[in-house]
Amino acid sequence: MDDHRRTELHKTVYLKDYQPPDWLVDTVDLRFDLDEKATTVRSILTVRSNHDTGRGMRPFVLNGRRLTLNVLKQDGRPLDKARYRVDDEALSFTPSSAKFVLEIETVIDPSANTELTGLYLSSGNFCTQCEAEGFRRITYYPDRPDVLARFTTTIAANKKYPVLLSNGNLTGSGDLVDGRHFATWHDPFPKPAYLFALIAGDLARVQDRFTTMSRRPIDLNIFVQHHNRDKCTHAMESLKQSMKWDEEAYGREYDLDTFMIVAVDDFNMGAMENKGLNVFNSKYVLARPETATDSDYQGIMGVVAHEYFHNWSGDRVTCRDWFQLSLKEGFTVFRDQQFMEDMTSPGVQRISDVAVLRNSQFREDAGPMAHPVRPDSYVEINNFYTLTVYNKGAEVIRMMRTLLGPAGFRKGTDLYFSRHDGQAVTTDDFVRAMEDANSVDLAQFKLWYSQAGTPELSVTRSYDANAGTYTLTVSQSCPPTPGQPDKKPMHIPLAIGLLGKNGGELDLKLDSGSKEGSKSLVLELRKPQESFTFVDIPAEPVPSLLRHFSAPVKVKLDLTDEERLLLMAHDPDEFNRWDAGQQYAAKLILELVQDVQDGKPLALDNRFIDAFRITLESGMKDKSFQAFALSMPAETYLADFMEIIDPSAIHEARRFVQETLAAVLKQPLLAVYSAHQDPGPYRIDQESIGRRSLKNMALAYLSLLEDGDVCDLCLRQFRGGGNMTDVLAALINLANNECHERDDALAMFYGTWKSDPLIMDKWFAIQAASRLSNTLGTVKKLLHHPAFNIKNPNRVRALIGSFASNAVRFHDPSGAGYAFIAEQVIAIDAMNPQIAARLVSAFTLWKRYDAKRQSLMRGQLERILSTPSLSKDVHEIVTKSLV
Ligand code: B3K
Ligand code: ZN
Would you say the CB of residue 307 lies under 6 angstroms from ligand 1? Predict the structure, then answer.
């Protein structure tokens, strides 16, 4: 491809260029004649000029890709070839009247669709994925979220596809000639094309019912392949809980007569919120105790809730353009996090949500693809379904709630939903609803939407014993990110408490008198530097800052080890109690990393071992929390503290700490392990989940000792475990050990589960994530395994994705890991650019590594870039990384 052509195809879209649509579509009447190789799509649009734009008679642009155009008629008459233009991306013409009916017939080939966007086949069934720009792979249409239309969809298909589904309510069905039949669906709610969905297949239906708060009965349906019909109970329960929660927490009631979930095996992401017809990756639907782990169960609950919540935050109120993606995603992630906090335990849920942010989103903010929560430009929008838009976006919503309080926030969301129901709006509209409902000014706060990068707070403290005052001085800054060299100070909620030397909380009274009386309060930072003085403080306290992680920032504060130990033992804020331990461990491990690099012998501080022992033996009520408190900071989180990342030294130092703890505390670990065995049959309540995670945490430490007894213990748990959580925990330990039980266990697991693709994903992932030195060789062999299929995104993520996240093996100094991932990116890009683009992100932080690794990674990026016909997805990430 020549450079000119590539620039054409890979052009940057800017938020500042947004123009409202010139033409609106009121109704869409679709008819699909399904055929695996040649599906005919007839579309009848009622179109009218959007006079509001005041731009006269403008061309009507309908996006379309890989379509064969058969018919194009305006008001019943074929449009003369000279009147319209078609190219690879669009069809356009200038209509002759301000209102007309357009009829289009196109033909598409679902069987050739390996990108898995538009209409494609999965396990022999038809399904669709239209967000962000997949509808244009189905028919010519103004495929932009600010064109909202009422859809009626008729699906005609051979009866070997007995189930025919689309959005809305079923309005007709019947037989046709030649063994075919049809179904017609009507969706009364205007929606953008990205929310369109169609399913046709031989599927089992699991049914249930929900009565809404206004006593309307709703039919609930989950459709799965027949052999999976016994694995839907948890997804169905999660759905009913989500529906109830959204009524109670946000006053949102479901609006159609039926709600449907369909599970498909080939899916680029987790799930999709199509109106009334959510399509799910089967990973987020199917579960039975013997097939799914506790974290699979939680994943299902979270994703079912997330997609259901989109019915209001996304479908009823949608995005004006794709720059506003966080309007629906950040808000909906926040909603699903709140839901999970209510369903499980708020502290533990917060810890795991923050882990995603600190271990992964901060890296995004620190790399060449860093972008604001509301990006201002993109080449390929699919590259912006990121942790920044989703998870940092959720933090931005959470901060508004922290600033306005729960009641003020609810007033804001009520106003937002009532003001914008049926509209396509912007993040500014969301913030305006918050401002108007609470009579506040959030102008400075909105910088969270437009400035990229992770802000840093440096905190110093001083205590005046004579005056009894304690002053915290907080400076904020934000490092430069691509296109944003200088940052303005942000409006940051900093939740704090002060602990006395005995661990008790102090009453907080600011000298300004602005806030007082409680034991925890939210300071509002707005300036580059500001000081807060507390009065009536009898002795120097220990500060507990950023409680419940009140803002997505990094905090620098020179706490002593003793102060951290005090917080670990006494901070009533669960998140900070956990974090004090993490910061203590991070400090020690990073010192050991330095020792590894300097070739010094390693030794672990006894006080740390004692603190760990106390946590281990503390018999906390919340065992999930206890398990988290015993975990070491992630390698990716530790890497964030290093100027030049040394993945081998991080791995070695962290492992040394874990091994030392295991060796010194072998007996107490064994005691915790045996004391927390499941007393009765498997249950998935919070208490049982907590017990299993604590027990398996102890076993994971013990397994590092690589002694025969522990291998036996793992093998016993592996063989005897009646649930996947225990089986998998044991197998992971074995897979990281050279012991002779390893291969047998892997073979046995394969033998038992080879016909279940989701479990095979676990089998692939465990082997690809193994720390053993021959892992790359194993992964290469597994590429040719009959259970592997490079066209299936779950398999690719399990085998290739897990290897790319295996820091110590991916970053092998030889560069072999880099070369392997580059080869896979190139191969996968030809089939499925979205999946390839996710994989290539493993290279984006290349400049943070040592010179040798830098040049090896850069070499692979250049190799990828020189591949002919690279997708714009991969092209965008690689070119931005190489700048
Ligand atoms: N909205 C979809 C994601 C679509 C991704 C397109 N590349 C799922 C979700 O966030 O709920
Ligand atoms: Zn979403």
Answer: yes
